[in-house]
Amino acid sequence: MKPKKSLGQNFLNDKKILTQIVETGKIKKKDIILEIGPGTGNLTNEILKKSPKKLLVVEKDNNLSNFLKKKYEFKIDVINKDILNCYDIFKYDQPIKVFGNLPYNISTRLLTSFIKLDNLKKKFEKFIFIFQKEVADRIIAEENTKNYGRLSILTSWKMNCEKIIDIDPKYFYPKPNVWSSLIMLTPKSKIEKLVNSKNLEHITNIFFSQRRKMIKKPMKLLFNDYQIIAKKLNIDLSLRPQNISKDQYLEICKCYEDLKH
């Protein structure tokens, strides 16, 4: 089976790394597993060795989907759809574990789609994802670093993030031009309640669209009484967007929502 460039397919074929991915997920026999973009089944094989209760795979490519159905028959459930159109259909009486060597062109969209779901922890136990290294570094970034921004703030609102390993391009076919990273994301038990996740996206977009400027300007765009809000939240208006903590962005968002409702 030839990988399709149009679908961003790069098959991971190193046995040692495939084993490490599965071990990171700590699969038990009672688990329901979802694998996104299984390709020819390299990771699928390793997951099946752990004998989970159920294994579903979502594969957009028609040829690969038919190939997987013939290869595994009744051992797995193959869903021949675009994951971006079905990420919210998985409803079981237990949280599921999700694995995926994500196509680079959809990875951030898919991650943010999962984050926006209600009751995330009730639906998903953990996500074991391979991202382009640059994207992974943005996901796990802390304030006061160059990679810190919208993605790290949005992700940390609902998830604990951990980088497991960086992966050399040579372990993929075809060989990509960039390194990748394996990330484990675990939904948090307690999160700050926001009226709508789009408000947090809107606020972080305003701040980080001019990340080199002082935050006085975005605060003025959001609030008429921006100085009072800044004092209330103990925020120095001369700071840059990357200097504001994730918790402070959530507080800014809550103030913004209070004004709107």
Molecular structure report:
The structure is a single chain. The chain is α/β, with parallel strands linked by helices. The protein has helices at residues 15-25, 42-48, 62-72, 107-115, 120-123, 133-140, 150-158, 197-208, 216-222, 226-232, 246-260; strands at 11-12, 32-36, 54-58, 77-79, 96-101, 124-132, 159-167, 172-173, 180-187. The chain folds into two domains: 5-187, Rossmann fold (3-Layer(aba) Sandwich); 197-260, rRNA adenine dimethylase, C-terminal domain (Helicase, Ruva Protein, domain 3), CATH 1.10.8. The strands form two sheets. It has a seven-stranded mixed beta sheet. A two-stranded antiparallel ribbon has the order 1-8. It is elongated and about 65 Å long. The model has no long low-confidence stretch (mean pLDDT 93).
Order of helices and strands: EHEHEHEEHHEHHEEEHHHH
CATH topology of the largest domain: Rossmann fold
Strand content: 15-25%
Approximate helicity band? 25-40%
Number of strands: 9
Low-confidence stretches: none
Note the topology.
Blueprint: E1 11-12, H1 15-25, E2 32-36, H2 42-48, E3 54-58, H3 62-72, E4 77-79, E5 96-101, H4 107-115, H5 120-123, E6 124-132, H6 133-140, H7 150-158, E7 159-167, E8 172-173, E9 180-187, H8 197-208, H9 216-222, H10 226-232, H11 246-260
Parallel strand pairs: 2-3, 2-5, 3-4, 5-6
Antiparallel strand pairs: 1-8, 6-9, 7-9
Helix pairs in contact: 1-2, 4-7, 7-11, 8-11
